[in-house]
Amino acid sequence: MWFDHWAVVWLAPVAVWILLSGLDDLFIDLVFFLRREAFAWPREAELAQAGQRRIAILVPLWQEHQVIGPMLRHNLAAILYTNYDIFVGVYPNDPLTLEAVSQVVRDDARVHLAVGPHDGPTSKGDCLNFTYQAMVEYEHRHAIDFEILITHDAEDLVHPQALRLTNWFSRDYQMVQVPVLPLATGLGEWTHGVYCDEFAEYQLKDIPVRQMLGGFLPSNGVGTGFERSALESLRARNQGRIFDPDCLTEDYETGLRMFAAGYRQVFVPLRLDAAGPVATREYFPHGRRAAIRQRSRWVAGIALQGWERHGWRAPRRQCYWFWRDRKGLAANLVSPFANLLFAYWFASFAAGRGLLPSFLAGQVPGWLTDLCLISTGISVVQAALRVHLSARVYGAGFAAAAPLRIVWANLINCLATLHALHLFIKARMERQSPAWRKTEHVYPCDTALLPGRPRLGEVMVRLRFVSTRDLQEALMRKALGQRIGEYLVEAGKITAEDLERALESQSSFSMAAGD
Description:
alpha/beta; Spore Coat Polysaccharide Biosynthesis Protein SpsA, Chain A; seven-stranded mixed sheet; two-stranded parallel sheet; 8% strand; globular
């Protein structure tokens, strides 16, 4: 059969690649299981007593009017931290997003609108740069200084403890990365399920091992806290720009530059507690086309632009991480062929043609048969580990379908890589930088997906209506059964208007997108 000839031609290169890449992954697995290191988690009392450094959260936007309002209101109510402000970058030719942000600005003094100097979209890095400049101007007007900067996107659910953790670890590290995880999804959501599986493996295994082995820490783009002085140093070295406007993955680039400049980086390990993972949560693309669009940007930015910009000019240990980050260029293209070959072999075996069809038995040398069996074994181990890690976050029922989702992921990643190569080559031929390909975002409307609803007293402290000391004193003095808001109004600590705003902020925690 002609298909048998085709299978023989592809068998050797596919098996060799799977073995090479699989051994690399197996090394990471062994380190993960054999070299566990205790992480110095702070106690709750230490977090509560730590001095709160002033934090600025930067949120770059382009056509995010449907989600940015609920995102800001939810996070303003949820975050267990008081000393922070949010700067939202918007382009002047995006009137709907401008209005959506302006509505929140009118309601909460902690939110500030940063309008860009030119129409968009340009790039996420450029949007972050002019948002940062607006923050600097705000500092000058109010004679204050922000000590930590955190980047977030329009679809992020910031964990209530995230800023407290960033504040704590930024005492010793110039870059602090809080984990990022997709929100849980149903079994029918195959594409979003791929993100769930991959991020569970990446956040629970790959990044912690990378940190243990001394590799540079790429920023996740959201939930990344930067020491202000370190960013200013990067700014001075990069013609006044912190984030590279020509890079499709400015987060990865910034993490690499921070490491190269000698700054300390830390990934806060994913902690699973009764209230859920301590991580930034969000919805990722649910459709095939949106996923390909997003992943093509990741491939083009990390693998292609990263290779073009930095080559392999790094210490030997860091070149290994370059290899890890770029091997997807080949792996993504080979994986679908491996799936086809495995399906062909399985169908032949099920049809009674034996371990190898008689036609192939005389053409395939013994060493190649052994190689295929070893590669298949490694692939099975990798699939089993992904099931295990996905189950830790999303449950055994969801994780049981991970092996099937791997096949779907291989197809999406292959198409995304082909698309990235097309865009990158086209941009180089036209002597342009690849354009910012923004992902469409949604925000959760099911309150069951969100962390616990904050208490009214916590909301009033976050809104700076009362101090923590005043709140504790009020809780001790109020009559049994009396509501804290009523007592504070009667005591003259807040006004009735303040109480109304706090109640609105508390209720907006569960607002649905588009409400």
